[in-house]
Amino acid sequence: MKKLMFIACLLVASISAQAQFEHGKWVVNPSLTGLDLSYNKNTKTTFGFNALAGAFLVDNVALLVNLGAEWAKNEDVYSLGVGGRYYFDKIGLYTGAGLKMNRFDPDYSKKVTDFAVSGEVGYAFFITKTVTVEPAVYCDLSLKDSDYTRFGLKVGFGIYF
């Protein structure tokens, strides 16, 4: 019975989330990418922080600016990018894409600038009317060298206002 009630509560929360994805609303989304078990050939696993901020241009479509940093044993990565998200109506599921400029500092000796096409799929689970927990799967496909391609899981916290 408890499981049935929990599923019903999730369904009601997802349906009420629709109002947050309307034209004119804003979103701020800090996330920890170190919980993501992200992986690439050079660094294996990393710890990082990523922040998104943007506005809904039309219902269910947000334009976002991305700022991030990741630290690993062998290299640090700092990124800046733009992108967008499409939220599927009424359920909180979203997909996103964007373009990032990454600044790699491998072994703290030389700096490498790379551009990457990024993509993600996630779910915005509303814990209050305006605050979400957003787990997502992502991939940053390097345009310069496949060694800089990254993929992983991340957990974000969204604030919609």
Keywords:
58% strand; 161 residues; Porin; mainly beta; eight-stranded antiparallel beta barrel
Account of the protein in words:
The chain has one helix at 2-16; strands spanning 26-32, 47-58, 61-71, 75-87, 93-106, 112-123, 125-126, 131-142, 150-160. With 161 residues, the protein is mostly beta strands. It has a single domain, classed as Porin. The chain has an eight-stranded antiparallel β-barrel. The termini are far apart.
Taken from the alpha-carbon principal axes, the silhouette is elongated
Order of helices and strands: HEEEEEEEEE
The CATH topology comes to Porin
Low-confidence stretches: 4-18
Strand order of the largest sheet: 1-2-3-4-5-6-8-9
Q: Strand fraction band?
A: over 45%
What distance separates the N and C termini?
35 Å
Largest sheet: number of strands, sense, barrel closure: 8 strands, antiparallel, barrel
Structural class: mainly beta
Output the CATH class name.
Mainly Beta
Question: Can you tell me the CATH architecture?
Answer: Beta Barrel
Mean pLDDT: 81
DSSP strand count: 9
Radius of gyration: 17 Å
Q: How many DSSP H or I helices?
A: 1
Number of domains: 1
Percent in helix: under 10%
